[in-house]
Amino acid sequence: MGENYNSNNGMLPQTPNTGSFFAFWSVLFGGLGLLTDCLPLFSIWNLPAGLIFGLTGIALAVLSKKGKPFSHQAQLGLILSIISAVCGLLLALFIIFVYDVMDTNTPLGLYFRQVFEATTQALMPTGGAGK
């Protein structure tokens, strides 16, 4: 009956090491990078975000290692971050390619210009709404 549930048997409480802190942030940045890679439609400035989040996540996963093998959380963060960085790089290169080809007089350049103009027309508010 006299048990004390608050005692720690003379041992100090264990705090999580900084490796798990970096691993957590690696997973978070890898996930955010994948999310921004999947949603590039909101802004052209959103395109390099997946690449930046991915590279940051890779750095955090490596920092979490600290001379020991990768934890499972750090492995997950590393995998998500690598996928995010690669997809972000591919998306950025694709957009650069599209804008570069739009300036040419090739059939592909004409097609990209027509798609861009049609999309701009569809997204513009109509002028007769207030009349």
Strand content: under 5%
Percent of residues in helices comes to: 55-70%
Query: What's the count of strands?
Result: 0
For the biggest sheet, the summary is: none
**Uncertain residue ranges:** none
Shape: elongated
The number of domains: 1
Query: What is the typical, i.e. mean, pLDDT?
Result: 81
Oligomer: single chain
Give a short synopsis of this structure.
The protein is an all-alpha fold. The chain is 67% helix and 0% strand. Keywords: Membrane, Transmembrane, Transmembrane helix.
Structure write-up:
- This protein is mostly helical and 131 residues long.
- The protein has 4 helices and no strands.
- It is elongated.
- The model has no long low-confidence stretch (mean pLDDT 81).
Give the arrangement of secondary structure elements.
Layout: H1 18-38, H2 47-65, H3 72-102, H4 107-123
Helix pairs in contact: 1-2, 1-3, 2-3, 3-4
Descriptive terms for the model:
single chain, 131 residues, mainly alpha, 4 helices
